[in-house]
From TrEMBL:
InterPro entries: P-loop_NTPase, Polyphosphate_phosphotransfera, PPK2-related. Pfam families: PPK2. GO terms for molecular function: polyphosphate kinase activity. PANTHER family: POLYPHOSPHATE:AMP PHOSPHOTRANSFERASE, POLYPHOSPHATE:AMP PHOSPHOTRANSFERASE-RELATED. This is Polyphosphate kinase 2, PPK2 family. Gene3D superfamilies: P-loop containing nucleotide triphosphate hydrolases. It comes from Geopseudomonas sagittaria. Residues 31-250 form the Polyphosphate kinase-2-related domain. The keyword Kinase applies. Belongs to the polyphosphate kinase 2 (PPK2) family. Class I subfamily.
Amino acid sequence: MLRLSDTLLDACLGDPCALAAGEAERLCGLDHDGASTQLAALKPWLVEQQRLLWARQQESLLIWLQGPDCAGKDGAIRRVFGGLDPQGLTVHGFRQPNAAERAEGFLARYRRRLPAPGEITLFNRTPYEGVACDLFDGFIAAPAIPERLAQLATFEEQLAGRGIRLLKVYLQISRTEQKARLRKRLLDPRKHWKVGAEDLEAHRRFEEREAHWAAILAASQRPQAPWQVIPANHKWLRDLLVASLVAREFERLDQRWPTPPLPFGLDELERA
């Protein structure tokens, strides 16, 4: 088996109520060199599975990546999905909604970017920003959250009905690790574009924000669309866990190359 075992992956289901201190540091019994080697061995298989998905044009895969600032959403996308065929792979990043997006309903911008059959689509930040960050940013009040959670549950059911397989991943880092990564951004001029004034306030309120996210994850933890809470302090572990979760989704599809009737044969080609 190229990917990590079900035992390790199922441990990521965990208890999203906690987002407990120390969980972000978990090593899952792995080490840097072994995990890096395993990811390198798994990548060609993922490439093949993506080609099968594209060739079959039936199901699609939608991956939602969520996590605190500096959790490594961009890095996971580069390291896990880099090298896959750009045809059939799309990444969408969602920043704070603008006035027009707020006016049309919080799910509308996500609905516009759903994958077509055969595609893999990644959302860097998810519709759950509408029940967390919209609250932090003052766009909604707490009484609006239950209704939005109900809309999200309906949305996820609709995705399943359209043959869109949904993988929800929360990248968990510690407050100490977030501070270290913010420091690196401040020290590297090439990363200054990533730093916003709001990052400092979010870091100051790290525990409060994570407690709110824990409650949101718990309220939206359904058997048909569970959250996978990934320890992400160690980038090499984060990447292998995400890649293995994607691999397991592909295994469940049990894909085969399509075998349509050929429009012409070798003899006809030779005579052409």
